[in-house]
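Quick one: structure for this chain?
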Amino acid sequence: MPQPRSLHVVGHAASQKPTFTCPRFFISDVCEFAFFTWIMLIPWYYLFYDLPPGFAVQLAPVIGRLLDVSPAFHVALHAGNRRATERCYHHGEGVVAYAGFTIASGRVPGFCVQGKRQREVPFLLARQDGVDLPEHLRDRMATAHKVGALELEVQVRLFQGGDAATGRPTWMWCKVRMGGAQPQDRTVCTVFALQSWFDFSG
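Got it. Here's what it folds into:
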């Protein structure tokens, strides 16, 4: 009697299908491959696709208002989009400063630049707070302007989507020299932008 029972147990075990177990070394290899692929794609993405934008400015004072108690400036922002897709800025703000003192400010209009293209964006910056420039500061500016050594700093902040609290900002700083016989050419700006990884929305 014990022999048939033993045969029944063996036959039942033989009829079961073997379960597949993934070797640990295989999982480890897949994870390492995915990790190194991701590490290699990030530099490629930023080097060849999402190239940072380039900006330059031209600053021209409103006639008769450079050394006025309330200065105003025409600004031409030259925006270059070096990536393949369109890049848009919904709004922004700009400041002109001298010796750390804000002498003009204002809003920058929104604009878009097509892929691999450039665009000029004009806007006006003027004295906004109603407070006249101190006399000693105007005297310093006038003296520097006579010898062609008046150096102004243009600061621009642009936002991609949202507002000043939620939009993704792009900052730029531009040193502009004014005065002298030579006309003022465009000045390349130093740009700092917060990139969002794999954001194709522009």
